[in-house]
């Protein structure tokens, strides 16, 4: 069997044995919109910004017509004056649902030559909202629209589309590159054809029927109200980017910090309902949209299946910002904020779940939150003069690495054919990989955790005994200090000059005859994000 075939089979096996790897928020093409903030006629102008974070050196980024080159870990803020216009008010004889789409070209295109993260920041006077922008290749074609929350002074009485602060919520649909047909289905059904990079808005009726947006090609969908947060005699924008419908039911742990006075706006293929949060059981299950609502905040929740290991948290431009972390109770150690380890935070149990959560104050610049060995959920929220904003933090990587935040994951591959130890070096090289050297204890356990999911067997590792001195050497020349010999190992020189790792025996090592045909473990290290 040639190498390419064997690698393909390995990848297929890997796909069968582990669940689909969760995604990340990185990509090379994005379409950004800025929902109408407060009201188009409000006398203060908006400051709309696109934040771009590069993950690799020499990343060329173009936002609208501005181009910049960024290095790994660098964030740049691009100003734009693009903002969605007010929504058409339908003719007086039209009763709810106000069934007309209003279409515009008011989008900002972002492209780059390497994977980046894009976030949108909109501020008008005190009204601030942020949004994580999903790259166009990770969007969906079906979105469940959440039910409308009851907000004092906004939606708790008669809504009229011609009075902004008493207007209905709206759904904003952002098209990507090709011509696309989009349909809003509720009690009725309304369709529109969008050209590339166009955006469509439509009012959301307060309706207990299931409401869904479906499209021919992928789109992004936002749920938004320009004037839903009340303060003094003005108001603030409330917006949330919705997740595409999932093909199975998943569980969403709700962080305690936000659970007070909160309700969950839930909609899937069975129902659509506003559920007050039960603090005894802070786990919500759904295959659709789950958005946390509390006065002043709409927050799309992260399901267990989309927990990840490294998140980007933007500079919050507020001295009252929090990072919220939700993690399994047994995985609280090994969390880092940038370059420092998280020290004994106050954990709060999420009753009725295996999770705990904490909130950390931050005032700093853009940073990353990463876990050495496990996955978690990370949100950021900020409270500015009692107005909240925030969203799930952007995912850089979903695979934990004890060395930091991997922007390209490490490659660990047990080859499907067996070779002698010396042939194994060449066989790995043929795939531009190296026979693995396990000179670090934490590295050994990370690799062991990954490989144990495969069938139990012995595999070659890159260590060899000198026939002159009897000392062991790693192929990568690192010192031979941390060892993981199985009980009674290694034996004498006559038992072999090379070593295997037993995946069915806690990854313990054993000396072995170098000529024996055994499957090698080939390796390539990750590329790590530069942390400052
Ligand atoms: C990126 O550039 C910085 C500074 O120029 C350098 O220190 C770093 O090693 C580079 N990173 C990679 C992955 O090449
Ligand atoms: C708002 O629209 C309704 C019909 O939908 C109309 O009766 C009313 O006069 C309008 N109000 C204003 C202030 O324009
Ligand atoms: C959008 O732009 C196209 C040209 O690029 C123009 O023909 C069209 O009228 C514009 N549509 C709107 C709604 O502004
Ligand atoms: C939606 O309508 C229902 C009944 O028609 C009503 O009880 C509820 O308060 C309304 N919700 C909002 C947000 O207006
Ligand atoms: C709803 O979606 C779930 C998950 O995709 C699926 O198992 C179930 O059959 C669906 N139910 C209906 C009524 O379509
Ligand atoms: C929760 O709501 C009650 C009554 O509406 C209010 O008195 C209380 O301050 C609220 N608590 C928080 C944390 O917002
Ligand atoms: C939560 O638990 C407490 C005591 O354990 C109980 O009194 C209360 O009714 C429960 N609340 C709900 C909403 O189940
Ligand atoms: C932590 O708990 C989860 C289930 O709650 C389990 O799957 C996982 O193996 C545990 N991890 C450790 C390190 O014990
Ligand atoms: C929000 O921040 C203000 C100060 O800006 C503070 O007085 C208030 O207590 C905070 N609100 C909450 C709910 O933490
Ligand atoms: C992020 O997702 C892309 C696929 O869109 C993938 O190519 C890339 O390897 C992922 N990044 C990491 C660090 O896993
Ligand atoms: C803003 C906020 O709610 N902060 C909380 C963070 O967590 C600690 C410990 O649970 C609370 O005491 C703070 O009130």
Automatic annotation (TrEMBL):
<dbReference type="InterPro" id="IPR001304">
    <property type="entry name" value="C-type_lectin-like"/>
</dbReference>
<dbReference type="Pfam" id="PF17517">
    <property type="entry name" value="IgGFc_binding"/>
</dbReference>
<dbReference type="Pfam" id="PF00059">
    <property type="entry name" value="Lectin_C"/>
</dbReference>
<feature type="signal peptide">
    <location>
        <begin position="1"/>
        <end position="19"/>
    </location>
</feature>
<feature type="domain" description="C-type lectin">
    <location>
        <begin position="420"/>
        <end position="523"/>
    </location>
</feature>
<dbReference type="InterPro" id="IPR016187">
    <property type="entry name" value="CTDL_fold"/>
</dbReference>
<keyword id="KW-0732">Signal</keyword>
<protein>
    <submittedName>
        <fullName>Transcript variant X1</fullName>
    </submittedName>
</protein>
<dbReference type="InterPro" id="IPR016186">
    <property type="entry name" value="C-type_lectin-like/link_sf"/>
</dbReference>
<dbReference type="InterPro" id="IPR035234">
    <property type="entry name" value="IgGFc-bd_N"/>
</dbReference>
